[in-house]
Amino acid sequence: MKLIIHGGFFSESDQSHEVKTAKQESLKEIAQKAFGYLQTHSAFDTAAYAVSLLEDDPLYNAGIGSQIQSDGVIRMSAAIMNGDTQKLSGVINLQDVKNPILVAKDLIGEDDRVLGGKGAKIYATEHGFEHFSTEIPQRRKEYEAKLSNGGKGTVGCVAIDKEGKLAAATSTGGKGFEIPGRISDSATVAGNYANSFCAVSCTGVGEDIVSNATATKIVTRVTDGMSLEKAFQKTFDELKTIDGFAGAIAIDNNGNIYHQDSYPTMVFASFDGEDFEVFS
């Protein structure tokens, strides 16, 4: 049993020592809580749980603390994929819900598993998700001053459970000040993908990740026999050809963990019950 979580790129936030320390402590705490949860739950359930904890922390651009779009509205996207069943479910441009990832998880049992906009909100309301504003004063201040640090804020979790099953979950508050209706990579298989061989969650510039099909390429290459490290290297080399910006975390079915990013540094934490790796 192992998991790895990410909190997007550090550059999206205040570069102060206090923020850096706070993110490190937050990631460590969430990784510990999520690993404890993994002891008695599936990778699928754990991935959603870990991302919901990240959504609840205003340090990150997902859930509470999401960026505000150019029309003054917060719209969030999230997806989860079960590597065992190879089913993905997600929400796109969802408004006024505390935890988009939990709505995405709820959709896994539906025939129509990816919903957007008003339809996603109606579904959330009908299934007991209360109306909740995720806006915090900091994001409003940034919006009013047009101070966007842009395009690199997403959270995610990849987990492998005691049965060796994999799952990936990803959530984002967008890049900030984008055109309303813009769709990020987070609720697509380019940014969040898993099967029985590998699971990947991405962060970065959504358009670049979609153009490169980053998560799908990595998982497919591991499935075809390439090592996790080589799959990352080849995929990120291809990302460079389009001057793309991204980061990704992954676990394969042998329990190998890998991560890679463009500059500046992605913040992440991994935990296997004994050893921590926390970086930002």
SSE blueprint and pairings:
Layout: E1 2-9, H1 17-38, H2 43-55, E2 76-82, E3 87-94, H3 100-106, E4 114-116, H4 117-126, H5 137-144, E5 154-160, E6 166-172, E7 192-194, E8 198-204, H6 206-212, H7 214-223, H8 228-241, E9 246-252, E10 257-261, E11 266-271, E12 276-279
Parallel strand pairs: 3-4
Antiparallel strand pairs: 1-5, 1-11, 2-3, 2-6, 5-6, 7-8, 8-9, 9-10, 11-12
Helix pairs in contact: 1-2, 2-3, 7-8
Number of strands: 12
Mean pLDDT: 92
Output the radius of gyration.
17 Å
Tell me the major beta sheet: 8 strands, mixed
Verbal overview:
- With 280 residues, the protein is an alpha+beta fold.
- The chain has eight helices and twelve strands.
- An eight-stranded mixed beta sheet has the order 4-3-2-6-5-1-11-12.
- The relative contact order is 0.19.
Could you write a compact summary of the structure shown?
By secondary structure, this protein is α+β, with helices and mostly antiparallel strands. Helices cover 32% and strands 26% of the residues. The strands form two sheets. An eight-stranded mixed beta sheet has the order 4-3-2-6-5-1-11-12.
Features:
4-stranded antiparallel beta sheet; 8 helices; globular; alpha+beta; about 30% helix; about 280 residues
